[in-house]
Amino acid sequence: MSVNLSPIKAKREVRLKAVALPIEHGSWGFLFEPLLGGLLIAPTFNSVWIAIMVIGAFLTRQPLKVYLTDWRAGRKLPQTELALKFIFIYGAIFLVGISGSLFFVKPNSFLPFLLIAPLAIYQIYCDASQQSRQLLPELTGAVAISSSIAVIALSNELDPALAYSFWAIFVARLIPSILYVRNRLKLEKGKEFFLIPVLASHFIAVGAIGMLAGNGLGSKLTLAVSVILLARAFWGLSPFRKKSKAVKIGIWEVIYGTLTMLSVVIGYYLKI
Questions:
Q1: Which pLDDT value is given to residue 218?
Q2: How many Cβ atoms are within 10 Å of 154's Cβ, its own excluded?
Q3: Closest listed residue to residue 184, CA positions, set 234, 255, 259, 140
Q4: Is the N or C terminus of the chain more exposed, i.e. has fewer CB atoms within 10 Å?
Q5: DSSP alpha helix (H) spans, 129-194
Q6: CB hemisphere CA count around 254 (13 angstroms)
C-alpha cells in the first residue's frame, strides 16, 4: 500500500458575507430609518439619486474596512482581493448616485454631508484600526449616516429648519438607542452596565423632540414614540425585565426605529 505524503495545502475559506456586507446588524437600521423617511417625505427623482449615493457609500464601508485592515497589517489574502472587487462594485453604485445627484440637485443641498465629512473620515480611520465597535465610532457613525434625511429634504426645497430638525430627530432616536442596546447586552451577560447615561440620553431626546414639536418642527407622534423609548429603557434595564437574547433585542430596536420613522412621516403629512 502506498501512502501519499505530499503536503496538502489548506485553502483559506473566505466568508463572502463578512467581506461584502456590514456585520453590525444595527447599522442597517442607521441607514434605512432616515433614508426611507426622507424618501417617503419627498418621493422624487432627486431623493432617489441621493439614496443610491448613500447606499453605495454605506455598502463600500465593509469591504474597505477589510482591505484597509489587511493593508495595514501588510498581508495579502484571498479576502483582500475579494474586498477590492466589492470596493469597485459598490464604488460604481456610489458614483452613479453622486453623478445623478450633482446633475439634478442644487449644491447647497449637500451642506449636511460637508458637515459630517470629518466624522466620515474618523469612521474610516476607526475601521482601518479595528476600533469601529467602540462606543464613540458608533455614535459618530449614527450622526453621520442620519444626515441623509436632511440632504433629501433640502434637495426638494423643504424649509431648511425642518430639514435639520428631521436630522436632529433621528440623532435623538439613534444615540440613546445605541447606549441602551450596549448596556442591555452587558446586563444580559451579567456584566457591569451604566443606567444613568442611558436614561439621561433618553430624557434629553424627549426634551429635544418636545421642543421641536412645540415649535412646529416635529410631530407629537414622534414625541410619543420617544416617551415609549424612554419607558423601554427604564423597563429593559430594570430587575423586572424579561431576559432576552441579542437577536430579540435587535428585532425590537428595528420595530422601535420603524415606529419613529413612521411617526415622522405621518406627522409631516398630517401636521400633527
A1: 93
A2: 25
A3: 234
A4: N
A5: 135-145, 148-155, 160-188
A6: 12
